[in-house]
Design brief:
The complex is a heterodimer of chains A (110) and B (126). Chain A is mainly beta and 110 residues long. Chain A is built from no helices and nine strands. Chain B is mainly beta. Chain B has no helices and ten strands. The chains are: A mainly beta (110), B mainly beta (126). The interface between A and B is medium-sized, with 27 and 25 residues.
Chain lengths: 110, 126
């Protein structure tokens, strides 16, 4: 199972919105609504930010939102804040009952 | 709150095995699946597999070709991941992370993973 495709890096200024894409195939992202997004600060464990494409866990800011179209899922962060600077990973369930992650995207807040 | 505390860093030689532990607290250990995920230095996340602590059933990634063994000791609420025939590119931080409730029967790996342990660095070097 190949990793899902994410841009290596994105950047934005405080207050702006950014979107991170996550492209897979009909065997993973396109075939299921089981897409999650994780935030990881340097030296820390990942933190769940979005699950089942669009759902936010309790405690996660409403500035984070998720969507999906075809084989591509997206994470949008609105009103960028300095604390959002981190690595972001998408994940998807697959037809082989396994989980595949994206390669990760480094978000820089300018 | 739910906590997963992992064992300390390990240094192993190529060809050896390593066993990482993950102790769960503040919830009923046998009520939730446990995942194992690793991250090589400067690299992304890689899913290794899950274990159902209630039944002992496991599911692992084909990428590990039978080198990974996931077990648990319910008496001490601890999950274990053993990786054998270590190679230098197995150098990574290994995480345990809680999965879905044991009642979930479909798409276990599709359920959100939360929370995660603090990670265990395994270094493979001659």
């Amino acid at each position: 199972q190949s990793a899902l495709t994410q841009p290596a890096s994105v950047s934005g200024s405080p207050g702006q919105s950014i979107t991170i894409s996550c492209t897979g195939t009909s065997s993973d992202v396109g075939g299921y609504t089981y897409v999650s997004w994780y935030q990881q600060h340097p030296g820390k464990a990942p933190k769940l930010m979005i699950y089942d494409v669009t759902n936010r866990p309790s405690g996660v800011s409403s500035r984070f939102s998720g969507s999906k179209s075809g084989n591509t899922a997206s994470l949008t962060i609105s009103g960028l804040q300095a604390e959002d600077e981190a690595d972001y990973y998408c994940s998807s369930y697959t037809t082989t009952s396994t989980l595949v992650f994206g390669g990760g995207t480094e978000l820089t807040v300018l | 709150q739910v906590q997963l505390v992992q064992s300390g860093a390990e240094v192993k030689k190529p060809g050896a095995s390593v066993k990482v532990s993950c102790k769960a607290s503040e919830y009923t250990f046998t009520d939730y699946y446990m995942h194992w995920v690793r991250q090589a230095p400067g690299q992304g996340l890689e899913w290794m597999g899950w274990i159902n602590p209630n039944s002992g059933d496991t599911k692992s990634s084909q990428n590990f070709q039978g080198r990974v063994t996931m077990t648990r000791d319910t008496s001490i609420s601890t999950a274990y991941m053993e990786l054998s025939s270590l190679k230098s590119d197995d150098t990574a931080v290994y995480y345990c992370a809680r999965g879905p409730p044991k009642t979930r029967k479909i798409a276990v790996a599709g359920h959100p993973i939360d929370p995660w342990g603090q990670g265990t660095l395994v270094t493979v070097s001659s």
